[in-house]
Specification:
This protein is of the alpha/beta class. It has a domain of 145 residues: Flavodoxin domain (Rossmann fold). The model has no long low-confidence stretch (mean pLDDT 95). The strands form two sheets. It has a five-stranded parallel beta sheet with strand order 2-1-3-6-7, with helices on both faces.
Length: 211
């Protein structure tokens, strides 16, 4: 059975995002082992002077770490080891000001690390190490933002973030229009749920590179 890491930030217990994530958790029962990283309960580490120096020494200079530097990088390595040990990763969060919430970006900053999830060759070309992973990104937004709309930021950002660490099989379950009334909201949930159901059917299948 595959393993799936769920990374969630759901400050509103009645949120539309939570309803769609609950659909995933229900449908995924018995199909994949779920590991939950709740960013409300366990905030990701933020770089300080010591941990940033450690990252630069190890990631870009290839130096072995010791002492304070080795200790400072451990919380980041914990997150990287966790996501590296699964086959699927599911992100679930609301939209704040047309973007992912800050704590979610902090998590992304913690796992996108040279020397761990991003490797550089002698010519400086980067490649991600999580090439066998699939990702599902669940989020809700008050409006509906078609391709080309400058407020449509999450799909572009998460495609870039995840591709950088090798994940090119990325699915978005976006529930847009939650400020447009109950009928629009319910329709958005149904649309997102259908996408979730399709992803669940693939949790034990190999990742496929996006076109």
């Amino acid at each position: 059975m595959s393993k799936t890491l769920v990374v969630s930030y759901l400050p509103n217990s009645q949120s539309v995002t939570k309803k769609v994530l609950d659909r995933f958790l229900k449908e995924a029962q018995g199909k994949t082992t779920v590991i939950h990283r709740d960013l409300l309960k366990s905030a990701p580490p933020v770089f300080n002077e010591t941990s940033m120096t450690a990252y630069q020494l190890r990631g870009f200079m290839g130096q072995a770490l010791s002492g304070d530097h080795a200790e400072a990088i451990k919380p980041f390595d914990t997150l990287i080891d966790e996501i590296a040990g699964v086959q699927n990763v599911v992100f679930a969060f609301p939209t704040h000001n047309w973007s992912e919430p800050g704590v979610v970006k902090t998590y992304i900053d913690a796992i996108l690390q040279a020397g761990r999830t991003i490797m550089y060759d002698a010519q400086g070309k980067a490649s991600g190490t999580l090439k066998n992973h699939k990702a599902l990104v669940i989020f809700a937004s008050g409006g509906v933002y078609e391709e080309g709309n400058p407020r449509r930021t999450i799909q572009n950002a998460f495609t870039f973030y995840l591709n950088a660490i090798g994940i090119t099989d990325v699915t978005f379950a976006a529930a847009g229009g939650t400020l447009m009334g109950p009928e629009a909201t319910e329709k958005a949930i149904q649309t997102a749920n259908a996408i979730v159901d399709g992803f669940v059917k693939r949790v034990d299948q190999p990742a496929q590179a996006s076109a």
